[in-house]
Predict the 3D structure of the following.
Amino acid sequence: MGNNNKGITLMELLVVILIVGVLAAVAIPAYTGYIERARRSDAKTCLEQMRASQEMRRAEKGSYSTSITELRNTWGVAGSCGEYTLLLTSASGTSFTGEAQPTAGGKQVADGSLFINSLGAKWDKDGKYYPAGKWAK
């Protein structure tokens, strides 16, 4: 009389596979977005450090540096930050614009560049200034 079932039915297996599939469909895009924001955060930090180094140089020498190489060698600015490369897109003794440009062929290319200038203005490739755009995320 005892029902001695050992194992699982095909229907139970399909239900488990369906649940795992739904969880994966939600979790993978959320994780990918999190990783993208973390990489972007590295670029923001490096740009802020570049700006701070430029301000230290201006306080000491009376003008901003026009050379990213000088900033790297003398003032400790990083050459790259994870998936981004730091550049001085325009620089004179009285102003500068720094750019964190995604590394060619890297994982952040679609995200685009971030910018900061000597006035502390921050914007992204779409021209959205902080607190909007990618600087806010």
